[in-house]
């Protein structure tokens, strides 16, 4: 059994991340906790709503109820990225070339490294935002689909339409697919066409008993792991048409205990699976072999993140019990 370094915080943990191998835990009340030669805290927001890891700078981006977008460095120092008083920053995303995206209401904003601001309006409230892995392009999830905007070019966005409420969005690591989480216990995907924007064929990934609130791409982008069922549902994306006509893997099935969070290993085809009772398993995609990483705790797992070597896993829960699993321990 791997060793677990526990940390008991007050309230819901929104997100976790490793910055320079230091584990960070972000609480909903707006305080950032880090385990850096002891437990240290930074009061960041009056209510934390969104969080994203910026790989390009090894920093953390956060959005709050106070209308601020903040950047947190590995040593805990903070800087203001943007501020919109009296607005709730419900979405933040980190992009290539140090670009930052954030959203409130029906508008998305992208701040480039030189301070230039770009603004993109939608007809409905922005529910999710993601950068394409290459090139400054963003996908914005909203009611009835996704809008694709090129950040540096004028012109009309490409609309990927599908009826219903889309609550989150992600690009595949190779940029060929866009996948959304939906209000109706399903995922929906589009295969992007370099010329036309998107092919007519859609990818419907249905059958979940609960809403999917966590997605994670495998290291090489061949698999997409998802929560929202009593197992991690892992869709195959190796072929040119993604998961169309193919059955997903079901890993870590535990009766009626729901999977709430998934996090794929940074190098191996392994997924960490967090459950509503606080248990965490690791499962290998090749043969479904499982390893127990943490026994059940006080609350549902709400966030997980691997460090760069994949030897440590940070986790947080809805009840504030969190910590770091050391696989080498």
TrEMBL record:
It is found in: Cell projection, Cilium. Keywords: Cell projection, Cilium, Repeat, WD repeat. The keyword Repeat applies. The keyword Repeat applies. Pfam families: ANAPC4_WD40 (PF12894), WD40 (PF00400). SUPFAM superfamilies: Quinoprotein alcohol dehydrogenase-like (SSF50998). InterPro entries: Apc4-like_WD40_dom, Quinoprotein_ADH-like_sf, WD40/YVTN_repeat-like_dom_sf, WD40_rpt. PANTHER family: IFT140/172-RELATED. This is WD-40 repeat-containing protein. It comes from Sinorhizobium americanum.
């Amino acid at each position: 059994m791997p060793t677990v370094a526990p940390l008991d915080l007050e309230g819901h943990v929104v997100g976790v991340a490793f910055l320079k191998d230091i584990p960070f835990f972000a609480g909903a009340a707006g305080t950032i906790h880090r385990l850096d030669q002891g437990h240290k805290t930074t009061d960041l927001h009056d209510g934390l709503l969104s969080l994203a890891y910026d790989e390009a700078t090894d920093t953390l981006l956060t959005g709050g109820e106070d209308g601020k977008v903040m950047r947190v460095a590995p040593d805990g120092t903070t800087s203001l990225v943007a501020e919109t008083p009296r607005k709730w920053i419900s979405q933040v995303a980190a992009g290539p070339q140090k670009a930052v995206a954030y959203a409130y209401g029906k508008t998305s904003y992208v701040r480039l490294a030189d301070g230039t601001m770009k603004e993109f309006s939608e007809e409905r409230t922005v529910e999710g935002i993601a950068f394409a892995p290459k090139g400054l392009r963003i996908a914005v999830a909203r009611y009835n689909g996704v809008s694709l905007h090129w950040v540096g070019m004028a012109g009309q966005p490409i609309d990927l339409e599908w009826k219903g409420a889309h609550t989150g969005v992600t690009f595949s690591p190779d940029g060929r697919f866009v996948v959304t989480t939906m209000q109706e216990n399903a995922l929906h995907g589009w295969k992007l066409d370099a010329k036309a924007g998107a092919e007519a064929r859609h990818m419907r990934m249905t059958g979940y008993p609960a809403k999917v609130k966590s997605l994670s791409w495998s290291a090489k982008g061949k698999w997409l792991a998802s929560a929202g069922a009593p197992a991690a549902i892992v869709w195959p994306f190796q072929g040119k048409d993604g998961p169309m006509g193919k059955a997903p893997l079901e890993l870590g099935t535990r009766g009626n205990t729901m999977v709430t969070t998934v996090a794929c290993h940074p190098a191996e085809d392994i997924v960490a699976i967090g459950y509503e009772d606080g248990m965490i398993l690791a499962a290998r995609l090749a043969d479904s072999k499982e390893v127990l990483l943490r026994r059940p705790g006080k609350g549902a797992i709400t966030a997980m993140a691997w460090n760069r070597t994949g030897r440590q896993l940070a986790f947080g829960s809805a009840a504030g019990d969190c910590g770091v699993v050391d696989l080498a321990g």
